[in-house]
UniProtKB/TrEMBL annotation:
Compartments it resides in: Cytoplasm
Protein name: NAD-dependent protein deacylase
Cofactor(s) the protein needs: Zn(2+)
CDD domains found in the cross-reference section: SIRT5_Af1_CobB
SUPFAM superfamilies named in the record: DHS-like NAD/FAD-binding domain (SSF52467)
Reactions the enzyme catalyzes: N(6)-succinyl-L-lysyl-[protein] + NAD(+) + H2O = 2''-O-succinyl-ADP-D-ribose + nicotinamide + L-lysyl-[protein]; N(6)-acetyl-L-lysyl-[protein] + NAD(+) + H2O = 2''-O-acetyl-ADP-D-ribose + nicotinamide + L-lysyl-[protein]
Gene: cobB
Deacetylase sirtuin-type domain residues: 1-236
Active site: 115 (proton acceptor)
Cofactor note: Binds 1 zinc ion per subunit.
Length: 236
């Protein structure tokens, strides 16, 4: 990577829905995105789950079924990031806002799903957190405690605390390079990571996206285009 003088500098990478677009998954805020079809407040908040659990389950069951489609596979950008992690002499932490499992399937290991995982559920009645590839319904009993009504998708809804924030801020405070890929920069705290990397670590910052994000001016370097074109070239 030409922009780095330290050949073993720790790297933090943030990814968003744009990196999975060319695998066939929808983004959120593009004209054909998920939030053009659904109102966030009706499907992705704790209040929505209390008021209309059937609609929330329908929304996530539909997206879970989409991930089961054999045509949905990691693309060249996911694979390039997994390769970077295995070849870079320093630490590489991949923080994804995506709830899909395409980074996992591509082979990334040092990976944080800060907004949760579509293929996991948890129970509000007990401490169960487990893999789940099927449909979920209000009356599905918890496989651990047996109670119904408590199972929910393991995703972070608006108003909830994203996952593993301490580990993320620790890595941001030490990194030499921060790369943001395929995210519109509209959702916090992820949209603020670039400032933390700049101000606390003095890191070089790079944006790779289809178009300038909301925070585009905060990045030292940027390139605009499809992730499968940009990412493999950038990380070699
Ligand atoms: C929280 C659920 C407290 C899962 C999602 C200021 C500071 C802190 C918080 C806030 C704040 N202001 C407001 C808040 C609250 C709120 C928030 O950010 N609201 C916004 C909308 C104003 N945040 C929260 O509630 C968060 N919790 O803050 O807790 C706290 C405070 C401080 C520190 C710690 C905790 C919880 C947010 C979780 C939201 N969950 N969804 C699901 O159903 O999937 S959000 C949703 O947006 C998805 O999870 C998604 O991951 C996330 C980000 O979207 P993107 O990935 O960026 O997708 P988007 O469509 O927007 O953009 C795609 C981009 O890709 C575009 O730019 C496009 O051009 C590009 N692209 C397209 N194709 C390609 C491409 N790029 C490359 N190649 C291509 N082919």
């Amino acid at each position: 990577m030409e922009i780095l003088r330290d050949e073993a500098a720790p790297i933090v990478i943030l990814t968003g829905a744009g990196i999975s677009k060319e695998s066939g998954l929808h983004t959120f805020r593009d004209p054909d995105g998920i939030w053009a079809k659904y109102d966030i407040s009706e499907v992705a908040t704790p209040e929505a789950f209390v008021n209309n659990p059937d609609l929330v389950h329908y929304f996530y069951n539909d997206r879970r079924a989409g991930l089961r489609d054999p045509a949905i596979v990691p693309n060249a950008a996911h694979l390039a990031l997994a390769r970077l992690e295995s070849e870079w002499p320093g630490d590489v932490l991949l923080v994804t806002q995506n709830v899909d499992d395409l980074h996992d399937r591509a082979g990334s290991k040092n990976l944080i799903h800060m907004h949760g995982e579509l293929l996991k559920i948890r129970c509000n009645h007990c401490d169960l957190l487990t893999g789940w590839a099927d449909d979920l319904a209000r009356e599905t009993p918890c496989p651990s405690c047996g109670k119904a009504g408590g199972l929910r998708p393991h995703v972070v809804w608006f108003g909830e605390m994203p996952l593993e924030m301490e580990r993320i801020y620790d890595a941001l405070g030490k990194c030499g390079l921060f790369i943001s890929i395929g995210t519109s920069g509209n959702v916090y705290p992820a949209a603020g990571f670039v400032q933390v990397a700049r101000e606390e670590a003095g890191a070089e910052t790079v944006e790779l996206n289809l178009e300038p994000s909301s925070g585009a001016t905060l990045f030292d370097h940027s390139a605009y285009g499809a992730a499968t074109d940009l990412v493999p070239g950038f990380v070699t």
